[in-house]
């Protein structure tokens, strides 16, 4: 029979009634109770039934415990309430945990078990926060006492890192708290007021916030952008000051939870403060909940997942890229959601996305591959970010006044995409001081204007020829046509009646509307420069080539609409096939130079875009067949075919589905691949120029 004073007796009594357990507990000696309570603390306090029995024993009077273990019992209650606060984030749970810290016995426990000097425990103690491996206490008004969770005390690596924290990170200067003391199980540092970056961003929402189907106000959008700019640039500057010390200081655990935004005394933008330097215990020691591991994997550089790897400044740059993605999306990032958030970034805020991908390359040597050799990593990051912010601000936030505001408010459709053209113009103005960016932005703006000029000509010709059909005007009697007719031998510039011409003109006009939308929504901001010159040619050619066959059918013979439409769709097919070819070339280069597994995320896209290209080719063939059957008299119902092509295919399928719904995704994926190709080429060039093949 087990002796009642033994630890085994206490464990056995857990299956008995509450009264019997309390009886065994009162009879147990100091050694048995101490081992029992410490065993409970080392287990992580996961058994709620045992905690319930101990709470009941404590409520009936602390006399059930020998005096030497009362502090450990209270610390167990405090730790359990702290974990409940972490799980629920309910203030009442934090208050409940803090109440246990007021008892002298728990302070004695911290002094004896954690080696915390008595002078640090004399003031008020309150629970501030709970991490994956530590409990963070507010000590008085000016200090923070960080203690290891009891179950992690036996880990020698964690204990050693904790004891060395003051020596390594105690006096790093502005942007970091001063560390006053550290032992194997505790760290005492300055208290930094203010919320964490995670708290701020989750409250503010994504950069491009959507509310009830409408974009946020211009003021709120501007505030969000200023927040992203203020935090990112401060972070970059702070990391630069740490990385460029004679002995580089690498944070290694840069997450949104380890960044505090300290309010400014003068009411300006908060100051970024970094806390919790050192390796990530969750990843390198394999401790913590599954959610902690997934969150750390999303933010911490992949090379830091192993305890054998040392962090480098580029490890922090990886985290910087992930933090930028977090600030843009406003979403918590378990590692499984990162690919989707990157996809969204290319679709919603592409200006920042190439920088993000450049920072979060899985290979440290490939990060910031776009960097010129004469620029440092941090300087190049600031330049790229500032350019991206200017472009985003020009596209979304810059105030539009006067005639531009009127033009930009014109709905999409019949009159084209004037809002997008003005947007490209604003982006050109935003980067015109950077000759490289300005040259490309200027070219894209000109071709967008060209697409609208071509559509405007189509619209004008459609109107005057239709008015001639209706007898409102007489084209042959107008001055330009009077002079032009005899010179080219044309007696009648508009042969046929309204009933003969209207269906061809309807098809021509809807094709022009679709063609402008197709180019503007998918390709006006995209370039294949440096990837395939043929693709760049087709991209720009498609901005205006649609007008050539349409003007032919409008001016020469509207009944030729199936053949003219087939020519226009063939141009589209060539463009689709060429952009797809460039995408595959880009993917091959990326997989060879950057990431062998990069293509896994594009399998579905390539399948869809392959079908997209073949469908446009089939559409061109179908139009050709329609033209033949109408021209040979096999079919007589031109009106039915024209309406089906104009309304069902052009507007419903091409305009609404293919361009409006699928277009942004196609544009985002193509842009991502083309930018990846350019990064891969720069990595290859850097390796060839640098001795030993390493990127400088």
How would you explain this protein's 3D organization?
There is one protein chain. The chain has 696 residues and is mainly alpha-helical. 61% of the residues lie in helices and 6% in strands. Strands 1-2-3-5-4 form a five-stranded antiparallel beta sheet. It starts with 6 loop residues before the first helix and ends in a 7-residue tail after the last helix. Residues 1-5 and 692-696 have low confidence and may be disordered.
Proportion of strand residues? 5-15%
Task: Outline the low-pLDDT stretches.
Answer: 1-5, 692-696
Order of strands side by side in the largest beta sheet?
Answer: 1-2-3-5-4
Taking the alpha carbons of the first and last residues, their distance comes to 72 Å
Given helix and strand content, the structural type is mainly alpha
- Percentage of helical residues? 55-70%
Q: Estimate the global geometry from the Cα principal axes.
A: elongated
* Count of runs of 4 or more consecutive helical residues: 28
Number of E-type strands: 9
Q: Give the mean pLDDT.
A: 86
Main beta sheet: 5 strands, antiparallel
Radius of gyration: 34 Å
């Amino acid at each position: 029979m087990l002796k009642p004073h033994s630890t085994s007796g206490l464990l056995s009594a857990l299956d008995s009634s509450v009264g019997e357990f309390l009886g065994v507990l009162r009879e147990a000696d100091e050694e048995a109770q101490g081992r029992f309570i410490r065993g409970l603390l080392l287990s992580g306090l996961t058994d709620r039934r045992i905690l319930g029995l101990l709470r009941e024993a404590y409520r009936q009077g602390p006399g059930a415990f020998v005096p030497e273990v009362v502090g450990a019992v209270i610390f167990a209650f405090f730790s359990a309430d702290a974990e409940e606060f972490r799980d629920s984030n309910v203030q009442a749970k934090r208050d409940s945990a803090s109440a246990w810290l007021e008892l002298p016995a728990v302070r004695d426990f911290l002094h004896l078990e954690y080696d915390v000097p008595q002078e640090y425990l004399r003031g008020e103690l309150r629970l501030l926060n709970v991490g994956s491996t530590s409990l963070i206490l507010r000590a008085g008004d000016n200090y923070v006492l960080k203690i290891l969770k009891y179950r992690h005390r036996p880990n020698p690596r964690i204990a050693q890192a904790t004891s060395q924290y003051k020596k390594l990170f105690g006096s790093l200067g502005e942007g970091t708290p001063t560390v006053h003391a550290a032992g194997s199980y505790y760290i005492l540092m300055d208290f930094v007021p203010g919320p964490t970056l995670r708290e701020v961003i989750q409250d503010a929402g994504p950069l491009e916030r959507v509310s009830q189907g409408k974009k946020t106000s211009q003021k709120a959008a501007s505030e969000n952008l200023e927040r992203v700019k203020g935090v990112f640039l401060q972070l970059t500057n702070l990391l630069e000051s740490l990385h460029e010390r004679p002995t580089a200081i690498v944070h290694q655990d840069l997450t949104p939870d380890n960044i505090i935004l300290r309010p400014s005394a003068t009411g300006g933008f908060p100051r970024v403060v970094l806390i919790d330097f050192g390796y990530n215990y969750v990843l390198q020691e394999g401790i913590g909940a599954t959610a902690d591991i997934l969150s750390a994997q999303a933010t911490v550089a992949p090379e830091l997942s192993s305890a054998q790897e040392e962090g480098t400044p580029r490890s922090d740059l990886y985290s910087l890229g992930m933090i930028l993605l977090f600030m843009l999306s406003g979403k918590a990032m378990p590692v499984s959601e990162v690919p989707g958030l990157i996809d969204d970034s290319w679709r919603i805020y592409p200006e920042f996305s190439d920088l993000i991908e450049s920072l979060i390359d899985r290979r440290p040597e490939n990060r910031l591959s776009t960097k010129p050799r004469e620029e440092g990593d941090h300087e190049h990051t600031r330049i790229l970010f500032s350019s991206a912010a200017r472009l985003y601000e020009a596209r979304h936030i810059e105030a539009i006044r006067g005639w531009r505001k009127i033009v930009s408010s014109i709905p999409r459709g019949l009159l084209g995409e004037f809002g997008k053209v003005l947007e490209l113009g604003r982006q050109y103005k935003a980067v015109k001081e950077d000759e490289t960016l300005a040259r490309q932005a200027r070219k894209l703006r000109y071709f967008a204007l060209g697409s609208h000029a071509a559509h405007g000509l189509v619209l004008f010709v459609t109107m005057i020829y239709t008015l001639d059909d209706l007898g409102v005007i007489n084209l042959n009697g107008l001055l330009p046509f009077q002079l032009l007719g005899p010179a080219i031998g044309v007696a009648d510039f508009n042969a046929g009646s309204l009933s003969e011409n209207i269906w061809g003109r309807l098809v021509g006009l809807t094709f022009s509307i679709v063609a402008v939308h197709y180019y503007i929504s998918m390709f006006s901001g995209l370039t294949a420069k440096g990837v395939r010159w043929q693709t760049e040619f087709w991209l720009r050619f498609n901005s205006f080539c649609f007008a050539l066959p349409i003007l032919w059918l409008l001016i020469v013979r509207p009944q030729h609409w199936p053949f003219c439409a087939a020519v226009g769709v063939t141009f589209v097919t060539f463009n689709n096939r060429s952009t797809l070819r460039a995408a595959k070339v880009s993917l091959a280069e990326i997989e060879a130079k950057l990431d062998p597994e990069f293509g896994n995320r594009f399998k579905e896209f390539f399948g869809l875009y392959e079908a997209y290209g073949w469908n446009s080719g089939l559409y061109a063939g179908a139009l050709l067949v329609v033209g033949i059957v109408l021209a040979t008299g096999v079919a007589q119902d031109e009106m039915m075919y024209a309406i089906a092509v104009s309304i069902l295919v052009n507007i419903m399928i091409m305009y609404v589905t293919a361009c409006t719904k699928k277009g942004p995704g196609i544009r985002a994926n193509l842009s991502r691949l083309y930018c990846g190709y350019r990064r891969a080429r720069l990595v290859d060039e850097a390796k060839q120029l640098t001795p030993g093949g390493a990127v400088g």
